[in-house]
Amino acid sequence: MLVAIVGRPNVGKSTMFNMLVGTRKALVEDTPGLTRDRNYAEVNLRDKSFIVVDTGGFEPTTDDVMLSQMRTQTMVAIEEADLIIFLGDGKAGVTPSDHEIVRTLAQTRKKVFYGVNKIDSEKYEDLAVDFYALGVDKIFPVSAMTGYGMGELIDAFLDHIPDHEAAKGAAEPYPDSMIKVAVVGRPNVGKSSLINLLLGSERLIANPEPGTTRDAIDTIVRHHGEQYLFIDTAGIRKRARIVDRLEKYSVIKAFRSIERADIVLLLMDATEPATEQDARIAGYAVEKGRALILLLNKWDLLPKDGNTHLQYAQKVRDALKYVDHAPIMTVSALQGTRAPKIFDLIKEMDRCYGKRISTADLNQFVEDMVAQHPPGTHRSNKRIKIYYATQVRVRPPTFAFFCNYPESIHFSYRRFLGNRIREVFDFGGSPLRLLFRKRQEKESARRSGRK
Fold this sequence. Notes:
Structural class: alpha/beta
Number of domains: 3
Strand content: 15-25%
Oligomer: single chain
């Protein structure tokens, strides 16, 4: 079942969301309008399972474009929800907007629980009395910050959630088999527009104003019978341009989204040169061992000839050092150019990302490579030996090489081995990790003797 938390901006919806989830998954700041998109999380309480969705502030009457979009997104959440928690602000009191919201909720004919937040103790419960003017039967005075009164509210809505109810629809729990894709990049390169295109609906707010997406938002996209989890992240700006705590939190969440993902789509603006910030994002993804795909968006805005793609690809390669394994694709989120091919590339990348090579094949490869290109010497007079190798994990594919002098294997030789593994075993654009570990020669001899 889906439980949506709705109310005016800055009444404490994200704080309640965090209390229910048990983590700081939603951004919390004393700034109206902080939560702009819908944010989902699975909750397990008292042997019952449900999905809670944190919504943006609901302003029923506004001419502000952003607030209007937030209102639209909140209405989508209300339509999806099975149960609704309305949250008012006990310190601010009842407002005309509260009356409008309650009237809107009444038209849905769904079960609604009315909470009045910021009631920190019993002596402040009188502040909640005014909310009976909304014409509702039951008011729950609560403090999402301290937990006061939350037990009674939770008991009330849990009574309406069947035991062992599985999460349904777009908010279902994410199985391990689902490919998780983080969409990252600098502000205003078209991340939300790309996901809306792939999804086929306005699931996320897309706005030409930079920095529209501030939370990392999970979206399940279905394509040819398969499901993909897309994580839309806040635009990542240079450190010097992060002028308030709000955006700082967003940057942290964006990098955490990379850590959650299997595959990272780094979206760049094809009309602008690749920047140091693009390189920083790509470097972070590689450092975390995530598969990386480079997407050049707004390709429709460029004048083109037969060599345009090669020229731009080379410029990206020159700017993004050490990610020459990552595939590059040009797209237009606005016109939909090559969007379906993104799924083909994601599937191919995931295949390579999860590939495993047998120890026998890997050791034959090592034997051939060492014979053709010896790894050199240790302190000029001792030959470096690689005794054997094995793949120790997938996602990313990680290989351990057991040597007598691992510290003396030069970076260039490590890079050579990685490139040859990628080529010989068809790892495509997947990242590879090579570990070089100490193995005493006598122990290696004993291993060989047992064989």
